[in-house]
Design a protein that fits this description.
Layout lengths: L5 H19 L13 H12 L10 E6 L2 H10 L11 E8 L14 H18 L3 E5 L4 H7 L7 E10 L13 H4 L7
Antiparallel strand pairs: 1-2, 2-4, 3-4
Length: 188
């Protein structure tokens, strides 16, 4: 069967949609009090599961928190960022250090990169589903471990994702120009 060119066009449209999504995304601190359908949540979680990881180690576990009281406790462990508890769902990303590839660049474990890729995959899926996220990076690992019965020692909390429907408008944060961040052939 001869290709009439529509498959290339469809791929270009999807790529443009992805870039538009990436350009429009921004952190949200106000969420509508609407529940998230299981299908949409599973789409986000499923995309996190499909994220690449070093040596396909997949060192992650994701804890879904919907209970209002628990979300308030988690928000307290996130340096009191109360808006977090207003999101319908929190996803707490945990890395099992022993499962991660131990020698990324020959000097560090891959779990931070692995978890970052999982978060980014989940964020893009959330936007595709009409949801938005806030990346919570200020938190007390030990407090969240205790709250959510996460084993201490070999398992670390790497992120908290506040997930829901945005209740605010605004522009994306500014980004640096390519000339500021790209070097060719050498760093300097």
């Amino acid at each position: 069967m001869k290709d009439d060119g529509t498959s290339v066009w469809k791929k270009q449209v999807k790529c443009m949609e992805l870039f538009d999504t990436m350009k429009k995304r921004r952190p949200v601190k106000r969420f509508k009090r609407l529940p998230i359908a299981d299908e949409k949540l599973n789409s986000v979680l499923g995309s996190m599961r499909l994220a690449p990881s070093a040596a396909n180690s997949q060192p992650w576990k994701f804890i879904v928190v919907r209970d209002d009281q628990m979300k308030q406790r988690v928000a307290s462990a996130c340096q009191g960022q109360k808006f977090i508890a207003d999101a319908p769902v929190l996803v707490v990303g945990c890395a099992t250090i022993a499962e991660a590839y131990p020698y990324l660049g020959m000097y560090m474990s891959s779990y931070g990169m692995d978890m970052g890729l999982a978060f980014c995959s989940g964020e893009l899926a959330a936007f595709h589903e009409g949801l938005t996220v806030h990346w919570v990076y200020q938190f007390h690992n030990e407090k969240i471990q205790e709250l959510l019965s996460i084993p201490s020692g070999d398992v670390n909390v790497v992120f908290v994702m506040a997930l829901g429907y945005s209740d605010e408008d605004g522009e994306p944060d500014g980004r640096k120009n390519l000339s500021e961040i790209v070097r060719y052939e050498k760093y300097s």
